[in-house]
Amino acid sequence: MKRSFVTTAIFSAAIFFVATTPPTTAIADNGNAPTTMSFFSGGAGAHADWFVTADQPPGDLDRQAIRLITTNGFPTYEQGYAGILFHHVEGIPAETFPDSEFWNKAPAGPTLGSPRLVVAFQNAAGQFTGYGALRQNARLTNNWEQVSDVSMYPNSAWDVMGGPCVTCTTCNGPSFKTASPGKRY
Q: Cβ–Cβ contacts within 10 Å for residue 97, how many?
């Protein structure tokens, strides 16, 4: 009898607590989530990750880098890809898109288009309409090299697929911006 009275008292107190606690609103971002980044890869040992290293491009002292490992291995030449995806980034009008650059360290020689910075285009309704890819044509040294749409043209250039220009290869930064008026990146 005592056990049943204690159980009933605890159960009654729990119901009272739930009934008298005011409802709370869940914290939400109201569609304004902060920018986040994720890594992706596809097969054959390829991967992307944060990498701590003292080997940095000129002027970069934070010892952090993003490592992209892609594969194209002998003897089967099985290919693997890796990349980074930024989420919750507001579109930027093409005309005001900033000059773009990244640093690359890989063996000297042709790059075969890897790595590249890919920017998706969308219309005012948010629908995908094409993309642009900033890439380096050839690696000139085995050291860090800047890939820039302004200062390294034509060895670094945009390839544009879609949008009003339909296809544009080896575009410099200003041409890239004017090739897609009214588009958002």
A: 19
CA nearest neighbour of 97 among 63, 120, 64 = 120
Q: Where are the beta strands (DSSP E) in the chain?
A: 36-42, 47-52, 64-69, 71-73, 78-87, 101-104, 109-110, 116-122, 128-136, 138-139, 145-148, 156-162, 167-171
Residue range 113-131, pLDDT digits in tens: 888 888 888 777 778 888 8
What is the DSSP secondary structure assignment for residue 93, as one 8-state letter?
B
Question: Cα separation of 118 and 173, whole Å?
Answer: 14
**Token match 């090739």: residue?**
179
CA pair distance 35, 128, nearest whole angstrom: 19
C-alpha gyration radius of the chain: 26
pTM above 0.85, yes or no: no
Beta strands at 138-139 and 78-87: parallel, antiparallel or unpaired: unpaired
Residue type, 4: S
What does the block give as tokens for 97? 């898109």
Nearest in space to 156 (alpha carbons), one of 140, 172, 180, 178: 172
- SS3 state at 18: helix
